Amino acid sequence: MLKGSLGLIALTSLFLSGAAMAQEKIKVGVTATLEGTYTVLGEDGIRGHQTALNVLGTKIGDKQLEFVIASTDATPDSAVRAVRKLIEQDKVQILLSPLSGDEGIAVKNFAKTHPELTFINAASGAQETTYVDPAPNFFRFNMDGAQWQVGLGKYAYEEKKYRKIATVGEDYSFIYTQVFGLVLEFCGAGGQVTNRQWVPLGTKDFASVIAALPDDVDAIYLGLGGADAVNFLNQYQQAGGKAHLMGGSIMIDQTILSSKGNAKNALIGTLAASGQADTWEDPGWQKFVKNYQDAFPPNKRFPSPSLLATNYYGSTMALILGLRAVNGDLSDNQSKLKAALAKLEIDAPNGKIKLDSNRQAIGTNFVTEVVDDGKGALFSKVVKVIPNVNQTLGYDPAVFAKIGLPSRTVPECKKY
Amino acid sequence: MSVTHDARVQLRAATTAQGQAARIWPEINHPAAWIVAVILVIMPLIANGFFLIEIFATTMILGTIALSLMFLAGYGGMVSLMQLTIAGFCAYMVAVFGVSANTNISLGWPWWLAVPMALALATLFGTLGGTLAVRTEGIYTIMITLAIGAAFYYFTNQNWAIFGGHTGINTVATPHFWGVNWRSDIPFYYIVLGTAALCYFAVAYISRAPFGLALQGVRDNPRRMAALGFNVNAHRIAAYAVASFIAGLAGVLQVWNYRQISPGSVSVGACIDILIIAVVGGITRPIGPYIGALIFVLLRTFALDFLVKIGLDGNRFRLIIGLGFLAIVFWSSDGVIGLWQRWRQGKRPTTTRPGGGHGHG
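Output (structure tokens, whole complex):
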């Protein structure tokens, strides 16, 4: 009985949604991690997305862009479920998804089952997504985790004179990719990575991790993000930790630097690398920061956009520019849009971005150091800018392929 | 644990009516049951891909997992929180033995070999877990099974050799034979419907068969059953084996549905979702879990849209889900089934025990 009447309700709502489809619209589905460990990252991603819409508008010729947002929790299953809901229920034609590394791998594989649609990666940064068996309809206008670490290892070795480091990271593909980039460069310069600890995503109790941190290293690299990073810092401070720190791209980021409490002060002076630097003087970047700040009241945003906001901004920008290039023409299984995206070069806030043959971004990377602005707010300050970073990190593709895919133990600490 | 307690009270009352009702299939004689059955069969004519798969097929998959919990809790008095874990284990095994994008892990067997293997292993896994759990009762059973579920979740999260870590196993191949892609919407819907119906009738049958009756006897008074010469623990373990097989079937469907499996699907939260589904639907009859699953899936899918539509912050959608469940459990400790029964009771005050005549499940 109940099932039957619900079936009828379902039926009615189907007709309703059918009527809504009649107008000239382009529907875009967006996913973000609005649940779980990475909630703050997802929320700021959506802010970046909205900033882009404020700046670029939602009109493509005479067509209106319409966005539907779905929530995930950084697990691949939640991402596939959300993307399927967007495609099948909301009938979106283009996807702006997903945020997190393993979500990216799952959505890329899912994209192959819908070759007629276009997927633009929102922010995820696992290497495998575009490096191994890429999907022809999946475009990534942000760099991967390894590209975001370019410059860090060398700078730590040459300028900071670090010789031995240990790493603590979340146990999944994006952080593997980040540590991959770090280890490759740091060990290539002659340094040693003595210990790599991996903690599950969503870890709350870091006591055993902190107790196991080695003492005889020059610095400890932290590849954590969201709530995990804040929990780690609180417990690290309570344990009286004093080591030099180095940080990954979502560790040294406004999502952590503007967290409440004073545990984040442990990060002052921390060396990091990322696809952006908060205090970069480039006018394009400054304009983006201003647009972001103007779009939201101060208590509803971070002092400066996080990496996720920047990535969502960049991917939204690529989507709109790509659609404009073909005047919103989605005929022939969106082939014109796909061709336009593949050769699109965007002037993103964090530098120029173009795509390689795997539809993976080639862009600019930043080595940064955390500074206090004197009023208690922390920012990442540029110490080095590295343009034209590609996915093989400047290695010959054949040599790069021999290193293997990022994992807990790959790459080995040696010169390749 | 009030869950089991409620079931017991009602079911014990029902046992007296057992003699006459034992071999009757009351649900089949009810016109509403036929209407539901016909609607389910012609569903592909009225619902599109999204409602067909994301709502109805998902409901039946989750409902089947919850059915295995209903079988254990309702007839055996054992609340097992590891039913989803068993389904997830089976799903992983399909991915490991079958074909997937992760060639380092998957052995590449054809589906007709991989699926029986996965089902056998899942049944074994559930039976072993059950063997541990039957040594305990009540809240301790819940704790042991929850511990198994939690351990499996963290193990899959960290094990890269077999389970593919946090990334899981992607692009799992789905069956394709007789020129039909069985994962395309309509064939898959019928596979799910067929499996769910099979499991439903199997549970309904077992509850009236000697084994099911003995199991209910064990639930109501284990000591007396032991005195009568029944091997109490053997019955309980056998119940776990049956429930594991049912959960395993649902696990196979789940991995085919999403074509991927990763630890998020076997998280502790998801294990508890199954308990919520069973409790909301009602654990006194096999139809309960399916009703609970439908409510759960509808809330999970539409709570966000609903909040945004009425102009509230969509981020609070979990609140709606929680309030919905709270309301159902508050007004009826016996789930939706209990509400329905009470409603019928109100309409026909002459009936002394409306639920009882309908068999004990």
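The first strand of chain B starts at residue 176 and ends at 177.
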